[in-house]
Amino acid sequence: MSIVFIPKTTSPKNIGKFRPISLCNVIYKVVSKVIVNKFRRVMNDCIDETQWAFVSGRQISDNISIAYEIIHSIKKRKGGSTGSFALKLGMSKAYDRVEWNFLEKVMSAMGFCNAWIYLIMTCVSKEASIEWADFMKSVVVEYEGISGHNVDNTVRKQIGRILGVRISGNPKRYLGLLAMVRRRKKQTFVELKEKVIRKIKSWSTRYLSMR
């Protein structure tokens, strides 16, 4: 299997402007397709019900709806001695941060046979190091020490510093869509509408030759 870099822009100037694409041979593609079709039968039993992406019969749009409801509830909540805040976690290269030894042990604990585990590990395993779990643990421990009925700017900045995130009273996007739905719903989704229109218009310029 070879890996090539495809430019994301017309004039890429750094490595972040390239997208790595794997060029697999025919045998690899056939074997991986067979594995996927076999695994699809038990996917729903292996993936937690809170995970909606890449699972047949589930829609990631449901997570967007849940996010809308949570943010709306936080915005509308008034009074009380305690407040609420939403924390958006953007996993950078989430799939590259999987520890392959952990994946192998999970498959073994789920009851997959050794031959199956060997096939999966042959497809995905590579050398990698990860410190994300330790980092998240330290964040939770420090966060547990922070409390306050009314979160003022000082405490808010302290939370942001500990978690290493920016403070935003109105998060703009979640899963590619606007996170807040305002009263003017047409104006909120006009960008999505225009994107769909541009996509449809592009179809008319692509003709299929039957010659």
TrEMBL record:
Coiled coil: none
PANTHER family referenced in this protein's UniProt entry, alphabetically: NON-LTR RETROLELEMENT REVERSE TRANSCRIPTASE-LIKE PROTEIN-RELATED, RNA-DIRECTED DNA POLYMERASE
MF terms in GO: RNA-directed DNA polymerase activity
Keyword Cell membrane in record: no
Keyword terms of this UniProt record: Nucleotidyltransferase, RNA-directed DNA polymerase, Transferase
InterPro entries to which the protein is assigned, alphabetical: DNA/RNA_pol_sf (IPR043502), Retrotransposon-Effector_Assoc (IPR052343), RT_dom (IPR000477)
Stated name of the protein: Reverse transcriptase
The keyword Disulfide bond is annotated on this UniProt entry: no
Annotated source species: Gossypium australe
Residue ranges occupied by any Reverse transcriptase domain in the UniProt entry: 8-129
Domain of life where this protein originates: Eukaryota
